[in-house]
Amino acid sequence: MDSTDNQLGNWIQYARISERTLAKEQKDKAEKLGRPFKDKPLRFAIKADAQTNFLQVKDVIKVFTKKDIFIFNLITNLEKSDKP
Question: How much is the pLDDT for 49?
Fold first, then answer.
């Protein structure tokens, strides 16, 4: 993830393009079958734990904001559940 070869930024862009293409295909298929179609936007998540350097997370967030993505999930730690 550097300024000359921002692969994360490219992956984000490709994911958005792929999601829109797939959504259009699914919408067209649903219309052909006379079924309703509910579009769900792509959701991104950043996963980090206590050992992750905060500056690295900040850099990842910066890539998201450069791609005009301001809503994403930040997963920091899994909590243990009392449920079986």
Answer: 85
pLDDT at 65: 94
CA 40 to chain CA mean position, Å: 12
The partner residues of 73 in beta bridges, in order of sequence, read 45
Q: How far is CA 44 from the centre of its chain?
A: 2
Task: Give pLDDT, residue 51.
Answer: 86
CB atoms within 10 A of CB 61: 15
End-to-end CA distance of the chain: 40
Residue 38 to residue 25: CA distance in whole angstroms? 13
| 7-33 and 54-66 helices, crossing angle to 10° | 50
Which residues in the chain show pLDDT less than 70? 1-4, 78-84
**Model pLDDT, residue 16:** 93
Domain ranges of the chain: 7-75
